[in-house]
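wait is this the right file?? whatever heres the structure
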């Protein structure tokens, strides 16, 4: 049995295949375009010569060459369609190769985080350089919104497990994920498909009622019959003229009501086709997990599959484009009330199918979110699905790493906590990895509780509400100082622990105030969280906070990062070690930067027992 290819090799081979196909189609299209031009010119020459010389044979030859021109027009269009098909799929695999080669920041950024969110801004969940930018493969706004919602708020444990099962199944369905992404990408480019206009259209009140529907069916038949009768002389032209005048009046009277709806459908026909292809991609897929099957079933409306009801919509959306044909549309519309017939069929489609379209688009968005998480799992061979455990259980992760760091430079660490009311206090040198570890834990928690994988050999994630205070920005516009801004974030963490089980990540508490107040305040905050049963990690330069371990040995553990001085240069191994850090590298860093610093920590002016703390 042939072993499966590595993710990079899988996408590289697919990219090469579609690049070769696109190049081949481009060459074919160029050759066919030359043949088109030749047949067109040949047709003109033969027909002109035939007419000029009154030669039927030349005229017939010109007609045959003209027919050949039309054939080549159709062939050329199909080749261009196949070329675009290959180009879009090439683009999909190139995007995944960027993820695998750590160039994912070149991908579309996506939505920005709400600054008031409990953890999104602190752990780089959204925006530039975020986990969302790295994993998002959605091509609809619903898919983007769904993935954001899942990352920003954990689902109930049973729902998370259902998502995990679906993600594991989709992980190796590379062709399906490619097609789902490519069908949307082909219609929208860098923008995303928006189903809102269609949903809005389906909720509009019907314009054509039963009475006028009967009239528009009978009146054209009568007028065309009177026209035929007038030609053979069995009926006068006056009757035909009267019926045609009545049709003209109806067409003009209803043109305004039909205009907006038909313009919308005609203008968005490319999106209709893209949504149709996405729905068919999901409809025809074979799934086994319960969530994927139920999501697939949500695409059916009253037992009607997408392949049927979207074909009907695509038909009438295509017929509405006759409105762009100028004089032809004017004549046909007067004779048949074309626009009103098209609008009537669209309104019938809305009543039978359109009212359920909102849930259909939601189902597509959820499939895209699951596909994004599955693509992330596929591109991260070191990832694994975490065990989702009860909120009363302990957190543990073996070889946990930061998902936004290049895989070649990640340093994995084991992180574990004893359960509710427990914490790890992490001390360490500047730039040694404290904040990185906090964000690694936070990102893996957010993705894991959304139903995705974690970058760890194994992990148990208790179902807790994530709360953080890591990255603090003051807001001059709001008149808030740095300290006040930080206090607001800490307050959300503390208040959250009063109402629900919380997993907290705190970095250098109260750094906006003096050392003494910082130590006392941080100690009070941590004890409050422990008393409320909260669980989490704290990164700090305040080594004296490590004394909490001796006071609460069953609930507090100390760990640290350190640096190594080698040949007057500072090196970091980013390995988490037990205990409190023994020294600090701040003065050494300042001296290396060329700043003369006098160490007078042992001076009599330093109060005994003062807290040693440095800005992060």
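ok assuming it is, sequence goes like this
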């Amino acid at each position: 049995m042939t072993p499966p290819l590595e993710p990079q090799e899988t996408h590289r081979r697919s990219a090469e295949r579609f690049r070769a196909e696109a190049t081949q189609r481009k060459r074919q299209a160029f050759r066919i375009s030359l043949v088109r031009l030749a047949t067109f010119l040949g047709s003109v020459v033969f027909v002109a010569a035939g007419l000029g010389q009154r030669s039927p044979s030349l005229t017939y030859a010109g007609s045959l060459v003209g027919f050949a021109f039309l054939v080549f027009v159709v062939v050329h269009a199909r080749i261009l369609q196949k070329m675009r098909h290959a180009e879009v799929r090439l683009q999909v695999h190139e995007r995944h190769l960027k993820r695998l080669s750590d160039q994912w920041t070149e991908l579309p950024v996506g939505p920005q985080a709400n600054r008031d969110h409990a953890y999104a801004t602190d752990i780089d969940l959204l925006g530039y350089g975020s986990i969302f930018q790295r994993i998002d493969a959605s091509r609809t706004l619903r898919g983007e919104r769904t993935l954001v919602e899942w990352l920003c708020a954990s689902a109930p444990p049973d729902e998370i497990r259902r998502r995990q099962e679906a993600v594991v199944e989709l992980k190796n369905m590379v062709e399906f994920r490619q097609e789902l992404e490519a069908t949307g990408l082909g219609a929208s480019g860098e923008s995303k498909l928006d189903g809102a206009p269609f949903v809005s259209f389906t909720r509009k009140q019907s314009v054509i009622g039963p009475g006028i529907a009967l009239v528009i069916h009978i009146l054209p038949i009568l007028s065309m019959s009177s026209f035929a009768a007038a030609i053979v002389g069995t009926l006068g032209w006056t009757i035909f003229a009267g019926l045609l005048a009545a049709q003209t009046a109806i067409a003009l009277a209803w043109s305004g009501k039909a205009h907006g709806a038909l313009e919308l459908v005609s203008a968005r026909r490319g999106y209709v086709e893209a949504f149709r292809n996405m729905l068919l991609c999901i409809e025809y897929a074979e799934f086994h997990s319960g969530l994927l099957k139920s999501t697939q079933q949500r695409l059916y409306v009253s037992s009607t599959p997408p392949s049927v009801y979207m074909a009907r919509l695509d038909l009438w959306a295509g017929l509405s484009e006759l409105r762009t044909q100028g004089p032809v549309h004017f004549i046909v519309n007067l004779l048949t009330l074309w626009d009103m017939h098209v609008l009537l069929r669209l309104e019938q489609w809305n009543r039978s199918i359109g009212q359920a379209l909102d849930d259909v688009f939601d189902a597509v968005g959820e499939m895209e979110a699951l596909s994004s998480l599955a693509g992330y799992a596929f591109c991260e061979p070191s990832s694994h699905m975490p065990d989702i455990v009860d909120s009363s259980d302990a957190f543990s992760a073996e070889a946990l790493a930061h998902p936004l760091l290049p895989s070649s430079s990640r340093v994995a660490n084991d992180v574990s906590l004893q359960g509710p009311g427990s914490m790890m206090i992490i001390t360490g040198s500047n730039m040694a990895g404290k904040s990185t570890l906090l964000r690694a834990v936070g990102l893996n928690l957010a993705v894991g509780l959304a139903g995705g994988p974690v970058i760890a050999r194994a992990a148990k994630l208790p179902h807790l509400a994530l709360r953080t205070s890591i990255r603090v920005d003051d807001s001059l516009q709001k008149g808030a100082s740095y300290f006040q801004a930080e206090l607001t974030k800490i307050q959300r963490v503390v208040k959250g622990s009063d109402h629900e089980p919380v997993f907290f990540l705190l970095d250098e508490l109260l750094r906006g105030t003096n050392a003494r107040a910082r130590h006392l305040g941080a100690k009070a905050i941590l004890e409050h969280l422990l008393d409320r049963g909260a669980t989490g990690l704290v990164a700090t330069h305040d080594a004296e906070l490590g004394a909490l371990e001796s006071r609460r040995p069953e609930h507090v553990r100390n760990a640290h990062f350190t640096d190594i001085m080698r040949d007057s240069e500072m090196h970091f191994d980013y390995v988490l070690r037990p205990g409190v850090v023994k020294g600090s590298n701040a003065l050494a860093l300042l001296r290396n930067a060329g700043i003369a610093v006098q160490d007078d920590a042992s001076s009599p002016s330093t109060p005994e027992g003062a807290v040693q703390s440095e800005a992060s």
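Confidence is low (pLDDT under 50) at residues 602-616. so i think its the right one actually
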